[in-house]
Amino acid sequence: MNKIILIGLATAFIMSCNPSTQNKKEMTMEQQTVGMVEITTFKLNQGVTTKDFEKTARSMQKDFLEKQNGFIKRTLTVSEDSTWTDVVFWKDQESAEKTMKLSETSELVLPFMEKIEFNSVKMNLTTPVIIEE
């Protein structure tokens, strides 16, 4: 049952991470065009430390997310009230959906999802209007 919940979380959530500088330099301008921005907020399960979660988030990003087609970049933040915000930029909706599907069965994503309080997750898929670097 818990694995089903975690898979559901992964499906709704797995669009987060910042590509390495090397990967970003290799992208063409067309590949960097943002077609979708995923904004997800959540809290961590009790007992999960910021340091432990950050380590797991970096690992999931490096080993899974950065390897997905259409992934552009990610910003992960935490507020004073311990609400995390994960902002993921995608080339298009198709790339995001393929990654969500793949994340449902990925053992690389599970440790990340296990640290998140399921009932706190709120996700919005948005279309960018203005993006400035």
In short:
The protein has 133 residues and is α+β, with helices and mostly antiparallel strands.
Can you put this structure into words, describing what you see?
- By secondary structure, the chain is an alpha+beta fold.
- The chain has a single domain, classed as Alpha-Beta Plaits.
- 38% of the residues lie in helices and 20% in strands.
- The protein contains six helices and four strands; from the N terminus they run αααβαββααβ.
- The chain has helices at 2-13, 21-26, 29-32, 50-63, 93-103, 110-113; strands at 36-42, 71-78, 84-90, 122-126.
- The protein has a four-stranded antiparallel β-sheet with strand order 2-3-1-4.
- Strand 2 and strand 3 form a beta hairpin.
- Helix 1 runs antiparallel to helix 5 (93-103).
- The chain is globular, with a radius of gyration of 14 Å.
- The relative contact order is 0.28.
- Residues 15-31 have low confidence and may be disordered.
Fold blueprint:
Layout (H helix, E strand, L loop, with lengths): L1 H12 L7 H6 L2 H4 L3 E7 L7 H14 L7 E8 L5 E7 L2 H11 L6 H4 L8 E5 L7
Write down the CATH topology.
Alpha-Beta Plaits
Supply the number of helical segments.
Answer: 6
Report the mean per-residue pLDDT as an integer.
83
Question: What is the ordering of alpha helices and beta strands?
Answer: HHHEHEEHHE
Q: Beta-sheet strand percentage?
A: 15-25%
Poorly predicted residue ranges: 15-31
Key terms:
133 residues, Alpha-Beta Plaits, 4-stranded antiparallel sheet, 4 strands, globular
